[in-house]
């Protein structure tokens, strides 16, 4: 399998090269050349890791990681993925039982296993700018990976204490730097290292943001596994409702459907950042600055994976027909969290709530709302809504018990490099 750019102006390459590159040289995003059809019969009895390995094998033909694929899957996907029935035709797929309690663990852990194996000859330095959640998933996934050193930049004082804790509690091969600036400054610093000769002399650089093909492919596995499980137990295909910000997670759902997994429909839910629902309604694509909402991991005004969706559905009408979209206000997020607590005794996070609200707008066929994060990550906003404490899972409790190290750095590329060299040598 080869990977090519959505802009068709970069030579095709195998998976590992696309993973190392992140963005294609022409500025486009890597996509696989084809979506091989899967033989569903061979997967009837398979457990998660087996399903993932079989699904991903055709995407690794010709790649140096192919012999390791089964080990990569069993090390990356080592936590449960429950599919729960909520009422007659509503189900919840819980993607938040990994180490940092959000679905980003799937992509980050898979990428970490791949990149560590690709860096045995020379160490790789991973540069990450984070406004919260991505940083903790990447830090947890790469902690202890001997061939990778990770540098995480976050805006000092602009992320929650709990988020900062989950980034700064690691040590070892993870260096977290509190930058005197904004999230955009952090992103700018990361970008500048890739064109800075001083950085190039010092280390081999890589990044791990959500456009990386190494994070997207593994996200197909939970749609594949749960759709098969659903078909086997219910005798029909489910639809999925995906809470979306950068639209990576929903892209993975469409890719799984394209392979022939039993998925009836795919719908998206957004928060008040409505650039994609507006496009589907008006035909006019207008990226803009993001607005802050309760579902803050979806506060995206220029969805970075939209280019992959457009590549899949070049015509507006086709995208419209394939992807019903619901925009959900903070008011409706709050009402949905209360409703699910009172009616089903389920505490859902604000991101998951967008999908649960959208479910009410859709047909009475079976729909699976995709639950993207554990509610305890957002306890401060949820507890006042439901008037009850949100239980803290053991993974979070363990992280919160670890001591943290704060390293503050000026918003300046050479100051960052000096700090990195002083830490890692
Ligand atoms: C990142 C994230 C999303 C949005 O996923 P995309 O792939 O960016 O659309 C939704 N919910 C949570 C909890 C997230 O962390």
Overview in brief:
By secondary structure, the chain is of the alpha/beta class. The protein is built from 19 helices and 13 strands. It is globular.
Q: How would you describe what is shown here?
A:
The protein is built from 19 helices and 13 strands. Helix 6 (161-168) links the parallel strand 6 (148-155) and strand 7. Helices cover 42% and strands 14% of the residues. The longest helix has 15 residues, at 220-234. The relative contact order is 0.13. Pyridoxal-5'-phosphate binds next to helix 11.
List keywords for this structure.
425 residues, alpha/beta, 5-stranded parallel β-sheet, 19 helices, globular, binds pyridoxal-5'-phosphate
Task: Compile the SSE list and pairings.
Blueprint: E1 3-5, H1 15-21, E2 30-32, H2 48-56, H3 69-76, E3 83-87, E4 90-94, H4 104-117, E5 124-129, H5 133-142, E6 148-155, H6 161-168, E7 174-179, H7 183-193, H8 197-202, E8 204-207, H9 213-216, H10 220-234, E9 239-243, H11 248-258, E10 265-270, H12 275-282, H13 306-312, H14 316-322, E11 325-327, H15 330-344, H16 350-361, E12 367-371, H17 379-386, H18 394-400, E13 408-409, H19 413-424
Parallel strand pairs: 4-12, 5-6, 5-8, 6-7, 7-13, 9-10, 9-12, 10-11
Antiparallel strand pairs: 1-2, 3-4
Helix pairs in contact: 2-3, 2-10, 3-4, 4-5, 10-11, 15-16
The chain binds pyridoxal-5'-phosphate (PLP).
